[in-house]
Design brief:
Elements lengths: L9 H4 L6 E4 L6 H10 L4 H16 L21 E3 L13 H9 L2 H8 L2 E6 L2 E7 L1 H5 L3 E4 H7 L1 H7 L11 H9 L3 E6 L9 E6 L6 E2 L2 E6 L4 E9 L7 E3 L2 E6 L4 E9 L4 E3 L2 E6 L4 E9 L3 E4 L2 E4 L5 E10 L4 E10 L5 E10 L4 E10 L7 E10 L5 E10 L5 E10 L2 H8 L5 H19 L2 H15 L5
Parallel strand pairs: 3-7, 6-9, 7-10, 8-11, 9-12, 10-13, 11-14, 12-15, 13-16, 14-17, 15-18, 16-19, 17-20, 18-20, 19-21, 20-22, 21-23, 22-24, 23-25
Antiparallel strand pairs: 1-2, 3-4, 5-6
Helix pairs in contact: 2-3, 3-9, 10-11, 11-12
Length: 466
Amino acid sequence: MTEAITISRETFDHKNEERSIYKTKEGLSEEIVREISRQKQEPEWMLKKRLQGLELFKKAKIPTWGPSLKKLDLNNIIYFNRPDSIKNAQDWEALPQDIRKTFERLGIPEAEKTKLSGVGAQYESDVVYHTIKKELEEKGVIFSDMDVAVKEHPELIKKYFMTTCVPINDHKFIMLHAAVWSGGTFIYVPKGVHVPLPLQAYFRMNARKGGQFEHTLIIIDEGASVQYIEGCSAPQYDVNSLHAGCVEIFVHKNARCRYSSVENWSKNTYNLNTKRAIVDEQGVMEWIGGNMGSGVTMLYPSTVLKGDYSRADHLSIAFAGPGQNQDTGAKIIHIGKKTASTVTAKSISRGDGITTYRGLLKINKSAVGAKSNVACDALLFDKESVTNTYPYIDIKQKNVDIGHEATVGKISDQQIFYLMSRGLSEQQAVQMIVSGFIEPIMKALPLEYAVELNKLIELEMEGSVG
């Protein structure tokens, strides 16, 4: 019999004393946006884009089609907070002891030694640590903080940043992001270069009433490939925090990108993240995600299959315990001929937790021979649990092969009884059933993230039986 893995929530809920070299007051104004840009010494075109985002944000309404955002007071958020730490250190020892220990608790320095090609670590609004293996640098791979990329690679940034993939007028929280974004990751992989080990970034919010708005921009040139991992966490507070990051990915001809993330924000955090990829001819985009922790999540990774024979695979798990509303899904737009996509979305609800799959599958008239299959599986713990499925399918082309299925199941007494008759405790029996349910996601995640996600789900399930 395998011993159940346990984890202390202290790993994630541990908080440091706040020490900032600069922190804005609560709320948002043109003065604050200009100050963010000034502190970053940005070019005029970026300031102009920020101010445009601010004006659009002021006019746009809060979305009402998903989970309620009525308790999110945008005037009570601190939008820019620079920690008292060196920026972009290349040695963990150069960081303040408390910040370094936070990332050590999360296992980032240890993973860097054996499993990663490069690491970025963001704390509040600044990237405090960043490295990449020398042999990748020599091949022309760029892996840097977005703030640095704006200065060192202006032509690339100006061409790709919030233009065609996620334009700044996309929705209210992208407008906000455009105005106050800070930190994040920039990756460029040149033609024909394959990055053998994953690149990773970890984003940590520590402060009360905090807002984090990192921007991730990934460009994979022709015939190249990369795996990128993002981890996120924050300690629990009695007031709301906001995460409204943005991920833009460009997969060029015959290129491949795998993006994996485990988002484990605290239950006082509104996670309103936007992720999107554009895929050219014969390109492949893979999304693998675990969503839990936050009180409210609205997250729908999107893929535009622009080129012929391009492909997208979306694989995700969402967990909602008492007081949580996880509204997640996928959006796929087929434009090119012979494009293909799959969506496997799993969710677990416990207590009065709510999980929702909200998806869009759009087949344009040009997408002759497109294939897509969507499968949504939900697991309910009890009669208080809630799960919803809102698929939207828009097909403009007759010559396609489309499948959609959704299943909802409860953990049955018969299953538990059978496993207990084989010597397991009730808690272990439930854990085994859940582990089997989420196995496809665990297999696809990098090992350390699969272990972390499994431990986190087990932690959330403690006390759910008996």
